[in-house]
Automatic annotation (TrEMBL):
UniProt similarity note: Belongs to the carotenoid oxygenase family.
InterPro entries: Carotenoid_Oase
Stated name of the protein: Carotenoid oxygenase
Pfam families: RPE65
BP GO annotations: carotene catabolic process
The record's free-text note on cofactor binding: Binds 1 Fe(2+) ion per subunit.
Cofactors: Fe(2+)
Organism lineage: Eukaryota, Viridiplantae, Streptophyta, Embryophyta, Tracheophyta
GO cellular component, one term: chloroplast stroma
Gene Ontology molecular functions: carotenoid dioxygenase activity; metal ion binding
Superkingdom per UniProt: Eukaryota
Length: 585
């Protein structure tokens, strides 16, 4: 394992500014899709350009003052004592604090040179609250902001832009939060009902345009049918466009011709060969899960309701093989009983046995859906899956994913959870499920060469969590590890498949790595022939940078280091889009 000094720049210019919020206005709120089940029927959305603000009442009206007063009453008299995990002054400090938008700004390459094959844009999403929360706020509740670095012939241009969601635009006009959040603000039946009532009143009195949704678009970025989307599982996608100068603009909601009337996962899986996308949505009422897909042109195909999912499940991701789509029913889900007992609406049911569901990926209904119990298997992100055949002709599905141990701590004590990389083999004929631990390290945010999605692959790149995380805060990423997940096939006694790693340096932390193939059009290219990129922040110097690492190097050697003109808060998921693909969008 090699350690690299995070930054060689002696700049302290931005450090003190982000130890607390720099905004002077109030709160932002959001939530996962469970809140939208309050509205029982699907709602048709209108597409709207970001420059057209919604027609709602001004934040200075008497009515708005009444609503703000009611919000304060809920915080002061109904909310239970503020837990550290939802205390904004605690969880949104240091490099979890939000930043302002930054227009395209040229960057300095301070080490090495950017490989010519990286012409294009790396764009990563993450929560970035527009206003300072005045009550309970979870890290996942923040407004989506995309941080992009446009690369052209070795030069880099950086940009940070909010995704101009319906929620963002209306709350900007009110200059405070309007939409309640489920993760941070619903502990106990009293606060939940009070916030729901106040929000319903805002809608009735024209304070909020519910037609265009309540999502935050803060989780991921994906390409569907040749268009770029910012995604969050609480809403339908927001189309965005990367301009020639590196700027990112929001084009608006896209309901795919009225065929996507509710929310969808932030993790659609793209078949590299067919360009099809496979997705789903979860819901708080039956059907708890609905599967669907998009053809190569981005045309959404009919829904496939999965009524055999028996309980609500926070199913965050899926995997595909050449034959099947794979979803996981976890112990995390929504239940009103949690509120009655003083807990969160979204909680953990320790009595529930997790299941893995296997459905033909071109299914028109769930008649061929098969479920397999996998005790203690709770995943948020799937690495990959593929098909195999046993000697007796039995079909086998293989799934690789980090299993979240101690999942009961996910919302309140994220510092206590551990991602254990596992390989799960399911014999579809016999129903036998076998499991193998691939790494004992604490790994999450796994990625592979995108060309191998749905096919048997060998290498995985994953973020390694810090050794001593701060209590109740999201864990920071201290480095990146490369795993050879095929090693156990040659020697089943192997229980650690890590073959390369890099630690970012003292007090330096990053996020999700992303693999970029050197030449994805070359059929003879080795699976790991390419680069791993990531945003990294030095908390001592207050400086962020963009790292390019050699994916084949045993130390994941840094081949280029770009100093960024603005701090990049720790975030979630992203994507790299090549120049030729951008030109066709």
């Amino acid at each position: 394992m090699e350690t690299v000094s995070c930054c060689s720049i002696n700049s302290h210019s931005s450090f003190h500014r982000y130890t607390n919020f720099h905004y002077h206005t109030k709160t932002i709120k959001s939530r996962p899709s469970f809140i939208v089940s309050v509205f029982k029927t699907p709602i048709a959305r209108r597409s709207r350009k970001e420059e057209n603000p919604p027609n709602v009442e001004s934040g200075n009206t008497l009515l708005e003052k009444v609503f703000k007063k009611l919000d304060k009453v809920i915080v002061d008299f109904l909310d239970p004592p503020l837990h550290l995990s939802i205390d904004a002054n605690y969880i949104l400090s240091d490099n979890f604090a939000p930043v302002s938008e930054l227009s395209p700004t040229e960057c300095d390459v301070i080490q090495g040179s950017i490989p010519a094959c990286l012409n294009g844009v790396y764009i990563r999403n993450g929560p970035n609250p527009q206003f300072h929360p005045n009550g309970p706020h979870h890290y996942f509740d923040g407004d989506g902001m995309v941080h992009s670095i446009r690369i052209s012939n070795g030069r880099a241009t950086f940009c940070s832009r909010y995704v101009k969601t319906n929620k963002y635009l209306i709350e900007r006009q009110h200059r405070s939060h309007v939409v309640p959040n489920v993760i941070g603000g619903t502990r106990g039946i009293g606060p939940f009902m009070a916030r729901a009532a106040v929000f319903a009143a805002r809608v009735i009195f024209g304070q909020y345009d519910i037609i265009n949704g309540i999502g935050v678009a803060n989780t991921n970025v994906s390409v569907l049918g040749g268009k770029v989307y910012a995604l969050c599982e609480s809403d339908i996608p927001y189309a965005v466009k990367v301009k020639d100068d590196g700027d990112v603009i929001t084009l608006g909601h896209d309901d795919f011709g009225g065929k996507l009337s509710k929310n969808m996962t932030a993790h659609p899986k793209i078949d590299h060969k067919t360009k099809e996308a496979f997705a789903f949505r979860y819901w708080a009422t039956k059907p708890y899960l609905t599967y669907f897909r998009f053809d190569s042109n981005g045309n959404k195909q009919p829904d496939v309701p999965i009524f055999s999912m028996e309980h609500p499940s926070l199913t965050h991701d899926l995997a595909i093989t050449q034959k099947y789509a794979i979803v996981c029913e976890t112990q995390i889900g929504a239940s009103p009983m949690n509120l009655i007992h003083g807990g969160r609406l979204v909680g953990v049911d320790s009595t529930k046995v997790p299941r893995v569901g296997v459905l033909p990926r071109y299914a028109n209904d769930e008649s061929d859906m098969k479920w397999f119990e996998v005790p203690g298997f709770n995943i948020f992100h799937a690495v990959n899956a593929w098909d195999e055949t046993e000697e007796d002709g039995s079909e086998v599905v293989v799934l690789v994913a980090p299993n979240i141990l101690s999942v009961e701590h996910f919302f309140d004590r994220a510092d206590l959870i551990h991602g254990s990389m596992e390989k799960v083999r399911i014999n579809l004929r016999t129903g036998v499920v076998s499991r193998k631990t691939l790494s004992s390290n604490n790994l999450e945010f796994p990625v592979i060469n995108p060309a191998f999605i749905g096919k048997k692959n060998k290498y995985v790149y994953a973020a390694t969590s810090e050794q001593s995380p701060a209590k109740c805060r999201m864990m920071r990423v201290s480095g990146v590890a490369k795993l050879d997940i095929a090693a156990t096939e040659e020697n089943n006694e192997i229980d650690e498949c890590t073959i390369a790693s890099r630690i970012y340096g003292n007090n330096c932390f990053g996020g999700e790595p992303f693999f970029i193939a050197r030449d994805p059009e070359d059929p003879n290219l080795e699976e790991d022939d390419g680069y791993v990129v990531c945003y990294v922040h030095d908390e001592s110097l207050g400086v962020s940078k963009f790292l390019v690492m050699d994916a084949r190097s045993p130390t994941l050697e840094v081949v280029a280091e770009v100093k960024l003109p603005q701090r990049v808060p720790y975030g979630l998921h992203g994507i790299f889009i090549r120049e030729k693909d951008l030109n066709e969008m």
